């Protein structure tokens, strides 16, 4: 969008906010915003209001660039968006007679025109809610894709006293983590229990690893073995500050008690912020923990193994990918390449089945050591790219639990006209054997789950199994 057109759109918004006269649909008025979306070039400007023009731009961007956009039934997106519009009206104690879903035919252009007409008739009646209604509508359209790598980043804020590396929230991690709750909650298994207490309110209240969370704000975390939405309250994001009440059980003592934790900012342990950590185990095993696939994480792993190898003979490598939420696919490929050459690590496919291959980087020097990889339900995205390659290419063994199943495809960012970012995959990820991993995960070769008693006692059964395998 040109600067002149941006100014025109801003002026139109000011006029619309100043009066309640109905605004004509785009088909009857001059176009105030383009529908094309482009990749970001440098830092975005200050975020401006979300409008129907921005919603149209996002809608067109999805249909034109999302990996299944060519075959997607766009009516599902518009229906979800309008449902969110009416729900937001209800939450604000308002309703509008014109807020009825228009008939849709499957013709994308005609359906958008019908949607926009109904949307404008509705929002013109409640001008004070325009921004809130637009945000809710666009969030619902993106959510209707059902894609764990589709995001609309907007209104991103940090606490006033935030320092790089600080944590925000209740100060605890559980065996069901935040990304899992958002991306694939169906894989969560009871019981829900604390795995780590990095700081904040949880630490101040004396919570410990192994404490079982029996209820959250009075609701059970699992019903009939299935995770409930209550678990999401464990992972508030700024500026959420609503206190969370937990009912806890400490199995080692039988104590039951309740505690209320208020989200807030807390300082994390510097060691926990390191992307790669390493140490020597049993005098001959290189243990390397990789918390994420940052741009240089593969090189850090290689240097860590080389350092541990200096002056001794190693007999194996344990790569601990538990809690690794992903990152750069290129770094995952480079790490695979240290253990095998000349192989396909994944396929990236369009909706018509046309696939590009991701291949090993054979310039990476081979480690030439037996490999065991520790995985869990928090290993997602690029972490699953790596794990599936290890399993399919038979270059090591996986120990722990199945991965998250959150790997629809590498997300591509697009800048919208209000300086917010929409991101989603242009291609769908398949493993080296062309298997679907998204929604399913990568199963371990040796299923060794962590229990509340293990967490309370500081035991690591998966690591113990890995050492046993490498010493055979």
SSE map:
Elements: H1 3-18, H2 52-65, H3 74-91, H4 108-123, H5 130-143, E1 151-153, E2 167-169, E3 173-174, H6 178-183, E4 194-196, H7 200-204, E5 212-216, E6 222-223, E7 226-227, E8 244-250, E9 255-261, E10 264-266, E11 276-281, E12 285-290, H8 297-309, E13 316-320, H9 329-337, E14 344-349, E15 355-359, E16 371-375, H10 382-392, E17 397-400, E18 411-415, E19 421-425, E20 428-430, E21 446-447, H11 452-457, H12 461-470
Parallel strand pairs: 12-13, 13-16, 16-17, 17-21
Antiparallel strand pairs: 1-19, 2-10, 3-4, 5-8, 6-7, 8-9, 11-12, 14-15, 14-20, 18-19
Helix pairs in contact: 2-5, 3-4, 3-5, 8-9, 9-10
What does this structure look like?
With about 475 residues, this protein is an alpha+beta fold. It has helices at about 5-20, 50-65, 75-90, 110-125, 130-145, 180-185, 200-205, 295-310, 330-335, 380-390, 450-455, 460-470; strands at about 150-155, 165-170, 175, 195, 210-215, 220-225, 225, 245-250, 255-260, 265, 275-280, 285-290, 315-320, 345-350, 355-360, 370-375, 395-400, 410-415, 420-425, 430, 445. Helix 2 runs parallel beside helix 5 (about 130-145), helix 3 (about 75-90) packs antiparallel against helix 5 (about 130-145) and helix 9 (about 330-335) runs parallel beside helix 10 (about 380-390). The chain is globular. The protein starts with a helix and ends with a helix.
């Amino acid at each position: 969008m040109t600067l002149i057109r941006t100014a025109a759109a801003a002026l139109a918004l000011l006029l619309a906010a100043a009066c309640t006269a109905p605004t004509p649909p785009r088909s009857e008025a001059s176009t105030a915003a383009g529908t094309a979306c482009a990749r970001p070039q440098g830092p975005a400007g200050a975020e401006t209001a979300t409008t129907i023009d921005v919603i149209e731009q996002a809608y067109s961007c999805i249909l034109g660039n999302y990996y299944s956009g060519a075959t997607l039934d766009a009516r599902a997106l518009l229906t979800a968006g309008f449902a969110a519009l009416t729900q937001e009206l209800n939450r604000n104690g308002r309703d509008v007679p014109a807020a009825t879903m228009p008939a849709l035919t499957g013709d994308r252009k005609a359906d958008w025109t019908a949607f926009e007409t109904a949307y404008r008739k509705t929002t013109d009646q409640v001008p004070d809610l325009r921004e809130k209604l637009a945000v809710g509508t666009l969030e619902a359209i993106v959510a209707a894709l059902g894609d764990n790598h589709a995001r609309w980043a907007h209104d991103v804020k940090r606490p006033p006293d935030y320092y790089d590396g600080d944590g925000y929230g209740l100060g605890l991690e559980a065996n069901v983590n935040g990304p899992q709750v958002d991306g694939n909650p169906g894989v969560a298994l009871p019981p829900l229990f604390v795995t780590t207490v990095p700081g904040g309110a949880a630490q101040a209240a004396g919570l410990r690893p192994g404490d079982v969370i029996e209820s959250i704000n009075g609701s059970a975390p699992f019903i009939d073995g299935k995770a409930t939405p209550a678990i999401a309250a464990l992972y508030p994001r700024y500026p959420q500050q609503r206190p969370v009440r937990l009912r806890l059980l400490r199995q080692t003592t039988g104590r039951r008690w309740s505690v209320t934790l208020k989200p807030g900012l807390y300082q994390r342990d510097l060691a926990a912020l390191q992307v790669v950590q390493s140490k020597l185990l049993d005098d001959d095993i290189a243990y390397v923990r990789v918390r994420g696939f940052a741009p240089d994480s593969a090189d850090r792993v290689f240097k860590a193994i080389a350092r541990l190898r200096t002056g001794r003979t190693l007999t194996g490598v344990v790569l601990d990918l538990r809690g690794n939420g992903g990152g750069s696919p290129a770094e995952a490929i480079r790490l695979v390449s240290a253990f095998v050459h000349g192989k396909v690590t994944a396929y990236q496919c369009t909706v018509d089945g046309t696939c590009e291959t991701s291949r090993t980087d054979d310039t990476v020097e081979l480690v030439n050591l037996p490999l065991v990889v520790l995985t869990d339900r928090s290993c997602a995205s690029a972490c699953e790219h790596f794990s599936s390659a290890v399993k399919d290419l038979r270059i090591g063994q996986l120990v722990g639990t199945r991965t998250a199943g959150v790997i629809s495809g590498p997300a591509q960012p697009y800048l919208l006209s209000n300086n917010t970012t929409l991101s989603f995959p242009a291609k769908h990820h398949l493993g080296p054997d062309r298997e679907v991993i998204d929604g399913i995960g990568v199963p371990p070769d040796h299923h060794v789950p962590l229990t509340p008693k293990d967490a309370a006692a500081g035991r690591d059964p998966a690591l113990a199994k890995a050492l046993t395998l490498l010493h055979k």
